Amino acid sequence: MNRILIIDDEEQIRNILRIYLVKEGYEVTEAEDGEEGLKVFYEKPFDLILLDVMLPKKDGWSILREVKKYTKTPVIMLTARDEIEDEIFGFEIGADDYITKPFNNKVLLARIKALLKKTNMLIESSIEIGELIINDSSHYVANLTGEIDLAPKEYELLMYLIKNNRIALSREKLLNEVWGYDFYGDDRTIDAHIKNLRKKIGKKAIKTVRGIGYKLDL
Question: Tell me: the pLDDT tens digits for 99-146?
């Protein structure tokens, strides 16, 4: 069951949304001001947040920034203002969608379903191998110490090694499969990228196979 947090100071709107969303099979938690909303958000995980812009104690923009700083939880902004500048600003600081009050419940539900479907697809494309966590949709790579910044070819090389985990691969094979048969580089290209990958994901992760090339050992 997907969990939705509603942060809105209008009790009537919270009640309408709660009744409608619970009927649709969602678990709903409410907060009536910004400070309470953040407190609840940090207490348990949520799959999506419905966030009013104009809130007492802490405004919606501040909450959005903080939520997006620490998580990838999708956020739909709710507002009575229909200024295009507000909408653009919301997207610039991380909003996933933006809907103006008063809104149609069916339209809001459709947007919620679309965002949750997109999020679930990203989760399903995640790979965990050794201490690495990889999302192939967003090219996000991390280990226990945090996110790892990889150049595009470093990422492609890593993914090819992962698909052939513990299989010895020649430099020629790696060049052909990752760079393409029409690439005019040599073994030094592979060696340089392997060296960089080892620095970023750990020296022990990629083994040198004497007389052949390299293999990932995770």
Answer: 988 888 899 999 999 888 877 665 556 778 888 888 776 678 888 788
Taking the whole predicted model, whether its pTM rises above 0.70 is answered as no
Question: Looking at the DSSP assignment, which residues form a beta bridge with residue 216?
Answer: 206
Report the phi/psi class of residue 146: left, alpha or beta, with left for phi > 0 and alpha for psi in -120 to 50: left
CB neighbour list of residue 215: distance below 8 Å, 6 or more residues apart: 161, 164, 166, 167, 168, 169, 206, 207, 209
Structure tokens at 214: 């390299």
Q: Are the CB atoms for 214 and 208 separated by under 8 Å?
A: yes
Identify residue 28 by its one-letter amino acid code.
V
Helix axes 60-70, 34-43, angle to 10 degrees: 20
Calculate the CA 69 to chain-centre distance: 11
Residues 6+ apart with CB under 8 A from 37: 5, 7, 31, 51, 55, 58, 63
CA 155 to chain centre: 17
At 133, which helix (H) or strand (E)? strand 132-135
What gap in Å lies between CA 144 and CA 131, rounded to an integer?
6
The structure tokens listed for 92 are 């610039």
Please give the structure tokens belonging to residue 73.
Answer: 């939880």
Report whether 33 contacts 9 (CB < 8 A): yes
Separation of alpha carbons 12 and 33, rounded Å: 14
According to DSSP, residue 84 is labeled H
Q: Shortest CA distance to 46 belongs to which of 119, 140, 146, 124?
A: 119
Predicted confidence band at 200 (pLDDT cuts at 50, 70, 90)? very high
Using a 10 angstrom Cβ sphere, with 0-12 exposed, 13-18 middle and 19 or more buried, the burial of residue 190 is buried
